[in-house]
Amino acid sequence: MQVETTPIAGVLLITPRRFFDDRGYFVELYQEERYRAAGVDARFMQDNRSLSRPVYTVRGLHFQRPPFAQAKLVQVLRGSIVDVAVDIRHGSPTFGRHVAVTLSAEAGNQLYVPAGFAHGFCTLEPDTEVHYKVSAPYSREHDGGIHWADPALGIDWPAGPDRAVVSDKDRVLPRLADLGPLFHYEGGTDA
Ligand SMILES: Cc1cn([C@H]2C[C@H](O)[C@@H](COP(=O)(O)OP(=O)(O)O[C@H]3O[C@@H](C)C(=O)[C@@H](O)[C@H]3O)O2)c(=O)[nH]c1=O
């Protein structure tokens, strides 16, 4: 598999190896030992899948507060997205900065987002399906988020506010500056 670092330490772009033959291909989407060696140091305990019917659906930017903080391994099963991870670890040298990458079913690439990041995506095609592994179970009480269009983040989303399709919950999320210090940087990634 191919593992690329990004401008934010700990956030990784991974392309697992596909074995092609006359039938199509086979690919391992996760393999604990190999992924751990590559820097995916989370223990995953839940798998999620979402379908977004309209193009330019924006989901995010989401996180869960400790002790239910989640690292995520994100990939696309159908269609394509711009996937975004924002560093919200106070004291981090990259606090407030983000990584944005295009993930697609065709490329089969994955983004590893450690705990301490807000995560979201914008779909680039109708009927896009996203799959992600998470390192802590869902907890509604620990669910939090940042408004996707918070200008302080400077994210170049493919869709502006006129075209983005956003949930009622996400439409009223606060800005990063209005959040308290939820995560503290400890010199590495804290999955
Ligand atoms: C995330 C999640 C939601 N749900 C339920 C709660 C709600 O009734 C329904 C839809 O939830 P949401 O609107 O929060 O779904 P969604 O907006 O797709 O939330 C997801 O967005 C992406 C960007 C992430 O990074 C994920 O961690 C998650 O926050 O599904 C679960 O039961 N388990 C889960 O793990």
Summarize the structure.
By secondary structure, the chain is mainly beta.
Q: Could you explain how this protein is built, in words?
A:
The chain is mainly beta and 191 residues long. It has a single domain (44-183), classed as Jelly Rolls. It contains two helices and 15 strands. It has helices at residues 32-38, 168-171, and strands spanning 2-5, 12-15, 18-21, 24-27, 46-52, 58-64, 72-78, 80-87, 89-90, 98-104, 110-113, 117-123, 128-134, 143-145, 183-184. The strands form four sheets. It has a six-stranded antiparallel β-sheet, with no helix packed on it. Strands 10-8-12-6-14 form a five-stranded antiparallel β-sheet, with no helix packed on it. The protein is globular. The mean pLDDT is 96. Dtdp-4-keto-L-rhamnose (TDO) binds at residues 48, 50, 59-60, 62, 72, 119-121, 138, 167, 169. Its EC number is 5.1.3.13. The active site is at residues 62, 132. Pathway: Carbohydrate biosynthesis; dTDP-L-rhamnose biosynthesis. It comes from Rhodospirillum centenum (strain ATCC 51521 / SW). The record marks 138 as: Participates in a stacking interaction with the thymidine ring of dTDP-4-oxo-6-deoxyglucose.
